[in-house]
Amino acid sequence: MSKRNIITLIFIVTIKTILTAISFNSFTKKETVKDIIHENKHEQVNLNNNNTTKLLEKKVNGKFVLPPLPYKYNALEPYIDAKTMELHYTKHHQAYADGLNKALEKHPELKSMSVEELITHLDTVPQDIRTEVRNNGGGYLNHSMFWLMMSPHSGEPKPELAKAINKSFGSFGNFKQQFNETAKKVFGSGWAWLCLDKEGNLVITKSKDQDNPITNGYEPILGLDVWEHAYYLKYQNKRFEYIDAWWNVVDWNHIENNYKNAVDKISKK
Ligand SMILES: [Fe+2]
After folding, report:
1. CA–CA separation, 263 vs 202, rounded Å?
2. Cα of 269 to ligand 1 centre, how many Å?
C-alpha cells in the first residue's frame, strides 16, 4: 500500500469514528432530553394550571379522552404500585370516559360543555342521562383531578395553604388526622376531600361513589380516592395503610395552586 493510500485510509477511519461518536452523542442526548421532559412534565403542568379545564379534560373529535398521566406508572412507588396505577388509569378512568361519551351521544346539544360544567350543573342535565353523567362524568373528572394532586416530589404544604390549615384546624397534624378519619369512614366506595365552602372556609368532606363536591357548591382542593380499585392490589383490605402512605405522594405545589384558584373562584361568586 502506498503512503498516499495509507494516509487516505487513516483519514477515512478518523472521519468515520468522529461521525459515529457524534451520532451516538446525539442519540444519547435525545433520550436524555426526552427523559427530562417526561420527568418534568408534572412541574410544567403545575406551572401552567391557571386554566384548569384544559388539564382536567381532553377531547378528540368531540369525545372525552384521558388527559395524559403526568408521570410514569411506577413514579409513585412504593406508596402506589405501578400495576395499580396502570389499571386505575387505563381501565377505570377510561371506563368513565367511555361511559360519559356514551351518555352524551343521546344529547348532542351537551357536547360543547366541559366536564366541570356538566358536573357543576347536574340539575340541568336531562333526566334520562343524569345518573350516567353523574357517575361517569364524576369519575372522569375526579380521576383527572386526582392524578394531578400526586407527584413523586411531595414535600410539605406550601405557605398560603399551610397558614389556612393552621387557622382552620389548629395544626397540620390535626388536619391530617381529621382527613384520615373521614377517608377511613367512607362507607363502600367514595372520596375524601379538602374543599373551600361557599363562604371560603376550609372544610373536610366525603362523597359517595363518584360524586364531586363542585355539584354542591364546594371548591375541591385535595381529594383522595378510597375506592378499593385504588389500593386493593397492594394493600388488600387495609385502607388505612393506603391512606397513610398516600400522604407521601401529595403534590403540595399543585395543592397550593388549587387553594389559590379556589379562593379566587369563591371570591368571584
Ligand atoms: Fe379510582
Report:
1. 10
2. 30
Q: Give the Å distance between the CA of 77 and the centre of ligand 1.
A: 17
- CB contact at 8 A, 26 and 234: no
Q: Write phi, then psi, for 191 (nearest 5 degrees).
A: -135, 150
Helices (H), 158-269: 159-169, 172-185, 232-235, 239-246, 252-268
| Radius of gyration of the chain measured on its C-alpha atoms | 24
Residue 67 is classified by DSSP as: P
Domains annotated on the chain, with CATH: 76-268 (3.55.40.20)
- Of 249, 226, 250, 247, nearest to 238 by C-alpha is 226
Ligand 1 centroid – CA 231 distance (Å):
9
Determine the distance separating the centroid of ligand 1 and the alpha carbon of 25, expressed in angstroms: 42
Q: What is the pTM of this model?
A: 0.81
Q: How far apart are CA 224 and CA 195, in angstroms?
A: 12
- Quick: pLDDT tens for 26-59: 333 333 223 322 333 443 444 344 456 668 999 9
CB count in 10 Å sphere of residue 47:
12
